[in-house]
Amino acid sequence: PPPAPSPTGPALKPRPCAPNARTRGANFHLAGDRGLAKGWKQRARDSVAAIRLAAQIEAEQRPASPDEQRQLIRFTGFGASGLA
Description:
Structural class: mainly alpha
Largest sheet: none
Helix content: 25-40%
Order of helices and strands: HH
Distance between the termini: 38 Å
Number of strands: 0
Shape: extended
Oligomer: single chain
Number of helices: 2
Radius of gyration: 18 Å
């Protein structure tokens, strides 16, 4: 017989948000390439910088500016690659 399912933890609750607390920004349209670095070390630095920037933008509860969006688009992750 299959084992008994493990107990689940408490369900995640959505964060409270004041009505109309955030304004939506305009969609970002990339003109050209993403400007990714050639080496994995610089790509890792760019990804970490994008994570920090995203956290700052979220903490300030505002949309990203076009310049910030250009930085955020450089996030490549750390999956199955030399970055991992």
